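Sequence only, no structure available. Ideas?
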Amino acid sequence: MGKTVNIVLSGEAGEGLKTIEKLITDLVSKYYYYFATKEVMSRVRGGNNTTEIRISEDKVYAFQKNIDVLFLLNDNALYRLEERINEKTVIFGSEKYKDDKIIKNKKSKLEIIDLDKLAKEAGNKLFKNTIIFGFLLGMMELEREEGNEKIKEFFNDKKEDIIDKNIDALEMGYKKGENHTDLFNIKKGNIENCKNISGTEAVGIGALAGGCNFVGSYPMSPATGVLTYLAAKGKEFDVLVEQAEDEIAALNMVIGSWYTGGRGLATTSGGGFALMQEAVSLSGVSETPCVVHIAQRPGPATGMPTRMEQGDLNLTVYAGHGEFPRIIVAPGTLKDGIELTQKAFYLADKYQVPAFILTDQFYVDSNSQMEKFELDEKYLEQNIVETDEDYKRYKITEDGISPRGIPGYGKGVVKGDSHEHTEEGLGTEDFNIRRKMNEKRMRKTVKILEDYIEPELIGDKDYKNLLVGWGSTYGVLSEYVNKSKDSKTSFLNIKQLYPLSENLKEYFEKAEKVLVVENNFKGQLANLLKLELGIKVDEKVLKYSGEPFSIEEIESKLKEVL
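Reply:
I predicted one. Tokens follow.
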């Protein structure tokens, strides 16, 4: 594993941490690998937020607890970071931190920099962000001119005077950063064929690649970013976006869009998805496809709206009353976010079932580089038939998949019903028909497994220990395996969480010890593996504080159990 420098910016909401992150990651991504993530309080102004930017010679995708370089943007920026600093941490802050007990107890090094004073000298307190940007460029010995061009690009809608003052502020910070080049000893490289995107953008791009042309949602953190991303792409990609009055209305609208031949998406979090249950069942019985993105956060109830957890797998598996097939996928990488979201639309369409994309706050709010790749256009294929006069919407078939028509395409009448129904779509209370229809719907599960999305194995194929994870644990577990170079331990990332394929057993049968790593209290995937496939798990490594696993934490915990 190459050298890594972990830079953390700490300040209150509204101080522009996101701006600094955007400026620096856009520039450093040309020369270094990076991973950036946020730790945000649930408020619009005030509080204390942090942005972490890990810069490395090698690919990194995990949260790092220990801070190498820390910038304190105000007098309230340190109190929540005590556990993350140590004697090796270099802290840049105002003179007010000279006698700080936390810094003294941790024996961290404090470098005095009065950002508020410097910003006033530059002409406006808002220039604090640009000063830090310049400081980081100087510390990394990157070219001033590149920074100036980035400023011009970022503020291209501002007056020339504002741009010039920002460039002056950058120069002010650059000169100070030049005095600290010893803090950044990473070899400069040349990163090509990559794109900087966030988890939010990955899901949004995947939706567009899957043919999404309607979004019905009610805003809910941390899923709102996908809603606003697709709204911004509305004209370019012909996507109609509707902010519904509530969650059940949102999913009903999405189901309506599929009924008429569209491809709709609802994006929400656990609390919002809980309100969609009746509509999920409507999708199940009417065999109308729908796609729902669920960006998980800690519950119960409102829980912690801006934190992360993987606590809604059970909710998604059992959502809606009654029994009916469904598909659940969970992206771990940015590429997964695009590909699995795209496939969710295709599979929902093909099998006429609800499909769910499970992410979480850590995934959607983090960003990094993704290698460019070609999308597969086959996932835009639609499985819609032209109806004839004798059309039967719910025709009983051997594989359980009835021909799906849409109103106005053909001569047939397309009936959809939330009641149990006949092949023609007429409501019925006939017990025999009920049994046949139930069996027909459930037969689709066998067909769905023919399209099972295979897991990804990282590490040696001849392993002794098998780490198992899903979703956003991908980054920390893959980094652990790649970093440790332990050929006895490999990592299995399960991308399709439901239905589970019997073929998964092969991975587990080879292992002497199986450890499942999850961000929830019960080990929901571990329990599902046992219930569905009879797979025995030796250890559950669980975290449910609202924080992601750090690379240090995984190294420590796995050392204990392995």
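The mean pLDDT is 96.
Hope that gets you unstuck.
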